Amino acid sequence: MNHRVLHHDDAASARGTGEASSRLAGTVRLTTAQALVRYLAAQRVATEDRSGSEPLFGGVFAIFGHGNVAGMGEALYQHRDALPTLRAHNEQAMAHSAIAYAKAHFRRRMMAVTTSIGPGATNLLTAAALAHVNRLPVLLLPGDIFVSRAPDPVLQQVEDFNDGGVSANDAFKPVSRYFDRIVHPAQLLTALPRALRVLTDAALCGPVTLALPQDVQAQAWDFPADFFAPRVVTFHSPAPRDDEIDAAFAHLRRARRPLIVAGGGVLYGRASDALHRFATTHGIPVAETQAGKSSLAWNDPLNAGALGVTGSPAANALALDADCVLAIGSRLQDFTTGSNTLFTQAELIGINANAFDGVKHRTLTVEADARLALEALAERLQGWHADRAWTARAHKLAASWRDTVSTLTHAPQRETVLPYEGDVIGAVQRSSAASDKDDIVVCAAGTLPAELHKLWRAGRPGAYHVEYGYSCMGYEIAGGLGVKLARPEREVIVMVGDGSYLMMNSEIATSVMLGAKLIVVVLDNRGYGCINRLQQACGGAPFNNLLDDCLQGPLGAPRIDFAAHARALGAQAEHAANIAELEAALQRARAADRTYVISIDTDPARTTDDGGWWWEVAVPEVSTRDSVRVARAKYEAQLAARAEPMAAAERTDKE
C-alpha cells in the first residue's frame, strides 16, 4: 500500500479509499508495524557498480505466530512488493540465512527477521550470538508481551518473579549491538535511525534487536511523512589518523620479515585490491584467517594460505619467524594466534575499524577502514621493501604448499578405504574447475572448516563462506540459502557433516520453495568425528560422539538415508559410494533445476596431517586414567612453552 501525505482536507477522501486518515498536516497515520516496515522499505544502497541504487533490505524472513501475525503480518502484506516476505521453517535457521545474506554482500545489504513471542523469539538467540561474534548485520524483530499487561500473562510469556518489565526478549541484550523495546509508536523516530547506524557502521556492526509488544505493533500514530522518504544509506568506517599511521609506518619501516594477517575486515572493507598492491609492492607475504580467506586469490605468489590452528605449514612457518605482523580486520581469536603462541616474538600492528578488536594482544592500533589504512601506509612506504630473502622464502613456501594441496586433493582412491574430507574437497574443487563456474563454498562447524581453510582454492573475494567465529553447527544449509539469495547467479555448494545436517536441515524445503537452488554435499562419518578426535587427543575414551559409542536401545544406532530424507523435503538427491561417483553426481547436480543433495560415507578418523598448530583445550588435572595423565603432561608443557616468550616480552617492556 503506497501512503501519501495526508492533510486535514484529505480526511474524508481517505476514509473512502481505505487509507488511514491523519489529524495533522504533513503526517501520515500508521500503526507501529506499518511505520517500521515502510521505513525499512525506503532505505536504499548504491549498487556495487555505483550505477544506481537498490534496496538496503533484501527482504524480511518471517514465521508468523500470535505475537506478530496481526501487526507485522498485515504491515508486511501491504509492502510485499517493495519489501519481500520470505517464509522459513525454523526461526534460528532463517536468521542464519539473513546473516549469510549480509556476509555474502560484504555487509552492504542485509535482511530483517520477525517472529512471534516465546519459542519463536528465543529460537533467534543462537543466531544473534553468531552475528554478534562475526560482526555481521541483521535486524531482529521478535514479538513481545502486551505493554498494557491486560492479558497478563499472555500465551508463551516468560514471567520474571522480580521484575514485571522483563520478558524473554531481554535475553537478546548480551548478544545485540543495539537493543530497544518499542513501547510507543513515537519511539521509532529515534530507534530506527539508531538501529540503521549500527547496522551500517563498520565499528558498531552487529545484530540489532527491536522487541515489538503485540499491542504496540497495532497502535496507530501520526508519523512525519518525511520520515519515510527514500534515501541512499551511507556506510560509516573511520579514516586513519596521521599519528597512528606514522607509528605503524615506523614499525614496518624497521621490519625485515613482516607478515600480513588478512581478516574478514579486508573483505568487508572491499580492500582486496589494495591488499594485493600493498603486498606485491613491498614483498610482504599474506596469511588468511577463516573470515579473511579469499582476500587474495589462492594462486597469488604471496598468499601463504591459512593461518593458525587450521593453518598451512607455509603460513605458520612465516608467522613463527616474522618480526612484524600487520593484522588487518581480524579479531585475532585463538585459532588465528594458536592460543597466543604463533607470533609472540613479533611486533604487532592491528588495523581495524573496531577499536575493541584493534587493541587486542598488545597491538599498536590503527583504528581505520582497511582500504584507507593500506593506502595511507603505502604512500609513506614508497621505496621500502621487505628483506629480499624473506620475500623469496615466502614465494617458495607458498608455491610448495600449493603443490602439496594439489597432491592431497588428487590422491588416488582405494576401494577398501573410506575417503576423508580432503578427498571430497578435491572432488568438489575439480567439479568447479571443470564447469568453469565461479562457485561459493559454504560451511560452518566440525572437521570441514579446518580442511577447507587449508585446501579450498578461492579464486575471488567471497568465494569462501565459512562461519567459524561462532563455529555454529546447523548454520550450513540455512547459510547457503542466504548466500544463494544474495548471489543467485553463482553456484552455491554447501558442505556439511551428518551431525550438522541432522541438527538443522529444514531450509532445504525453503530453498526448493523459493527456487534458490543449492548443491549440498553431506559427509557422513556417523557422528561428531571432529569432537571424537579431540576427545581422544585429550586422553578421553571414545564416548558419546560417534553413534557407535553412544548409549543405545535394543535396535542400535540408526542407519540414516540422507538422500531419502532430502527427497522428502522436495530436493533431488542421491548417495555416492565413492569419489568417482561423487564427481559424476556433482555434474548431475549442476544440471538440476532445484536443490540437489549428495551424501557420501567418510572416515571419521583421518585428517590432513600437513599444517596445523597447537590449540589450548584444558585437560583434567586429576584423573584415574593413564591416557588423561599423559595428555595433561603434554598440556602443561605447552603452557610452559607459551609462558616463556610472554614473560620475555614483559621483561623487555619493563627495560
From TrEMBL:
Listed GO MF terms: 3D-(3,5/4)-trihydroxycyclohexane-1,2-dione hydrolase activity
Start and end residues of each Thiamine pyrophosphate enzyme N-terminal TPP-binding domain: 61-156
Keywords per UniProt: Hydrolase, Thiamine pyrophosphate
Listed EC numbers: 3.7.1.22
Pfam families per UniProt: TPP_enzyme_C (PF02775), TPP_enzyme_M (PF00205), TPP_enzyme_N (PF02776)
Residue intervals of the Thiamine pyrophosphate enzyme TPP-binding domain: 445-599
Top EC group: hydrolase
Region span, Disordered: 1-23
Domain Thiamine pyrophosphate enzyme central: 245-377
InterPro entries the UniProt entry points to: DHS-like_NAD/FAD-binding_dom (IPR029035), Myo_inos_IolD (IPR030817), THDP-binding (IPR029061), Thiamin_PyroP_enz_cen_dom (IPR012000), Thiamin_PyroP_enz_TPP-bd_dom (IPR012001), TPP-bd_CS (IPR000399), TPP_enz (IPR045229), TPP_enzyme_TPP-bd (IPR011766)
Alphabetized NCBIfam families for the sequence: myo_inos_iolD (TIGR04377)
Family as reported in the entry's similarity comment: Belongs to the TPP enzyme family.
Name of this protein: 3D-(3,5/4)-trihydroxycyclohexane-1,2-dione acylhydrolase (Decyclizing)
Species name: Paraburkholderia terricola
